[in-house]
Specification:
The chain has 112 residues and is an alpha+beta fold. It has a single domain, classed as Alpha-Beta Plaits (2-Layer Sandwich). Helix content is 20%, strand content 37%. It is built from 2 helices and 6 strands, in the order βαββββαβ. The longest helix has 12 residues.
């Protein structure tokens, strides 16, 4: 099993959710986060004054998939999230040693 963590533009959340649902990924956790990468934030003008915004709002999606489904999920996230502009986000993949569905006590792939 693999955990996929994707940090994306908030506007791309629905497209990514739909793309993952289409390939059978059933669950995900979504968090509103802030951060910056190479773009180092941005500036905004409010009432004539310019303000530096150091942290950019992003969406963090976490989902666990079977190992054989990982590459397809990464590809779908990449296609749905990509705009071609700086700040599109990042995808991280981590190994998952064990998963347990508490209600039924199903383990590993059956718990997904």
């Amino acid at each position: 099993m693999k955990m996929i963590v994707a940090v994306l533009r908030p506007s791309r959340l629905e497209a990514v959710k739909d793309a993952l649902s289409a390939i059978g990924v059933e669950g995900m956790t979504v968090s509103e986060v802030q951060g910056y990468g190479r773009q180092k934030g941005h500036t905004e003008i409010y009432r004539g004054a310019e303000y530096a915004i150091s942290f950019v709002p992003k969406i963090k999606i976490e989902t666990v998939v079977a190992s054989d489904q990982c590459e397809a999920a990464i590809e779908e996230i990449k296609k749905a999230a990509q705009t071609g502009r700086m700040g599109d986000g990042k995808i991280f993949v981590l190994p998952v040693e064990f998963a347990l569905r508490i209600r039924t006590e199903e383990a590993d792939d059956a718990a997904l």
